[in-house]
Specification:
Layout (H helix, E strand, L loop, with lengths): L2 H15 L1 E3 H8 L3 H13 L3 E4 L2 E4 H4 L5 H4 L4 H11 L7 E5 L3 H8 L7 E5 L2 H8 L4 E5 L3 E3 L4 E3 L1 H8 L3 E7 L2 E3 L3 E4 L2 H12 L1 E7 L11 E4 L6 E4 L5 H8 L4 E4 L1
Length: 253
């Protein structure tokens, strides 16, 4: 395979999956990791990819915020493992806040029925699932509904969060880096996520490994404000150690 053909293949893979890994590309294309790194550097110079730890992400995908239905099937097995690990962060009783998102939806699907919990959420799809569970006192935040994420946002929702305190906030992320912390594509959703963090004694971020190294448009909070970050084993030990150096505990499920 010529270099041009190889780079076109890398670009196609990145477009399809949103992210490429050096080792996987080397195995798939039958070249050395050093060759793949040179290809990624060249593609980054062309504005096609952006290099991140261990690989690259497709620039074409950065400006597109997938809808809930599109995101539900991505990394579904990893999200389920993350959700099962997040069960260990639930209090025996008390109050929690659950961010709108597909990984947090997996947590809701596994929510135990052996304890009394007050749950605050701004995700309409999460509220429907939570309303059917025994032992749950549900508070659904009101506001402007974003059809793309089925999340209530805006000043009304933020004001309601200012009136409550929860033991744990479970928050999703579109991007996670040591430098920029937690980021997301939409400013209004970023403000709601920050409000969730402020309302909680502890913050637990749920994010699969494809979100690491990605910086999205709107900043949510630095990693120093996050107590625990739960991800999957696709995040390598070196990257996990860099995150833990900020004071944030990392769980790889």
């Amino acid at each position: 395979m010529y270099a041009t053909e190889r780079q076109l293949e890398i670009r196609a893979i990145a477009r399809e999956h949103g992210r490429v890994e050096v080792k996987e590309l080397a195995d798939r294309l039958g070249v050395t990791p050093e060759t793949v790194r040179r290809d990624l550097t060249l593609l980054e110079r062309r504005g096609v990819l952006r290099r991140v730890h261990g690989g690259a992400i497709a620039v074409e995908r950065l400006a597109i915020e997938p809808a809930v239905a599109d995101r539900e099937t991505r990394m579904s097995e990893a999200k389920q493992r993350i959700a099962r690990a997040a069960l260990d962060e639930l209090p025996d009783g008390g109050a929690i806040a659950v961010d709108a998102g597909t990984t947090t939806a997996q947590l809701v699907a596994l929510m135990p029925t052996d304890r009394e919990l007050t749950v605050v959420t701004h995700g309409v799809h999460l509220a429907i699932a939570l309303a059917a569970l025994p032992g749950i006192t549900l508070h659904l935040l009101g506001g402007q509904l974003r059809g793309r994420t089925l999340a209530a946002v805006g000043a009304w929702a933020e004001q309601q969060l200012a009136d409550v305190h929860v033991d744990v906030a479970f928050v999703g992320a579109n991007g996670v880096t040591v430098e920029e912390g937690i980021t997301t594509p939409d400013l209004a959703e970023a403000r709601i996520k920050r409000a969730l963090v402020r309302a909680a004694s502890r913050t637990v971020i749920l994010a699969d490994h494809t979100k690491f190294g990605l910086v999205d448009f709107a900043r949510v909070t630095p990693l120093a404000d996050v107590d625990t970050l739960i991800t999957d084993t696709g995040l390598d030990a070196e990257a996990a150690a860099e995150i833990e150096a900020t004071g944030c505990r990392v769980v790889r499920a």
